[in-house]
C-alpha cells in the first residue's frame, strides 16, 4: 500500500491534477449555491461513491499489474528468458 500512497502524493503535485481540482472546487461552489441542503447531501454522497469507485479501480489495477509482473518474472525464470 505504500506505493499507492506515494503515487497519490505524486498526483497531488501534478499541475494538471491541481488545475482539475481547482475547476471541480469552483463547480462545487456554483452547484451548492443553487441546490437545497437535501440535494446537496445527495450530491456529496454521490461524489463520495465515485471517489471510492476510482480508488478501488486504481488499487485493483495496481494489484493486477503487480501480479502480472510477478507472473512474467516467474515465466521468464522458468524459460530462461
Give a written overview of the molecule.
The longest helix has 43 residues, at 37-79. The protein is elongated, with a radius of gyration of 19 Å. It is mainly α and 81 residues long. It has helices at 2-11, 15-33, 37-79. The mean pLDDT is 86. It contains 3 helices and no strands.
**Series of secondary-structure elements, N-terminal to C-terminal:** HHH
Number of strands: 0
Which class of secondary structure composition applies to the elements?
mainly alpha
Please give the radius of gyration in angstroms: 19 Å
Percent helix, as a range, is over 70%
Distance between the termini: 30 Å
Please indicate the percent range of residues in DSSP E strands (runs of 2 or more): under 5%
What is the tally of helical segments?
3
Low confidence ranges: none
Globally, the shape reads: elongated
Biggest sheet layout: none
Oligomer: single chain
State mean pLDDT (0 to 100 scale).
86
